[in-house]
Amino acid sequence: MSDPNAGDPQDDELPKDPAVDCEIEVTCPYCGETVLIMLDPAGGGAQDYVEDCEVCCRPWQVSVRYDDRGAATVHVEQAQ
Ligand SMILES: [Zn+2]
Fold first, then answer.
1. How far is the CA of 52 from the centre of ligand 1 (A)?
2. For the chain, which residues make up each domain, given as ranges?
3. How many whole angstroms separate alpha carbon 80 and alpha carbon 78?
């Protein structure tokens, strides 16, 4: 490539929107492990669902909230 701007971070071939979170780290309320979970930005600004911890396999009640800039806030607690 003869592009004089090679290496400029603005020349990324696949620009993607960094504002929308599609994965986030949470701390398991049972075993205390930090686990990366996948989010679904297309699923709405407020999502609540049950997901099993991939470390200890116990169920979380997951609450996801997106703000108007696409930043996710995730709360995880023990599901009963
Ligand atoms: Zn766990």
1. 8
2. 43-80
3. 6
